[in-house]
Design a protein that fits this description.
single chain, alpha+beta, five-stranded mixed beta sheet, 6 helices
Amino acid sequence: MKMFKKLMAVALAGVMALTVLTGCAGTINKKEYVNVLNDLIKVSGKDYTVEQGSDKLAKEVLAKVEVYAENHNRGERYTKTAVAYEVLQNLNHRDPADIKAIVPKDAKDQYSLMWTQLNDYESKAFKNNESAANVIRMAMGNECELNEVDEDKLGTTATASIATQKIGEATFLVIVLVQAAK
């Protein structure tokens, strides 16, 4: 019986250690992000809903950004993090990492990209509403359309591909929204 209690104590300690590790940077509640996106869409007066999709597209974007940042890391001023930030920030004007290539040729669906660097917030308001704070940051300038389609031909559903990845010293969150055509 003593051996059983010791084994259970070790097992419980292991479970607790894993629970602590799951709170590390980059771990997000994707369902909550989808809920925040739907709330933001309602508030903006648009007429579509978002469902969680595969994380494949978001991971593909992050992989392209990381490869580009790795190959264009130019020392102290242009660290991998700085290069990744610059690529994402300027995506409306140029696409050196070839991110827009994730969109299939002749796509009828609208592909949009939202991104942010994850931060450790200090205030309770931001800590308790981290997903909302991040989505609002994305909506305030860290988004772009990856292809051009006629908005009148879009349907009322979209899927969100959501992923995080550490690039250099920062963890980036990317959401690729794909609004289906009618």
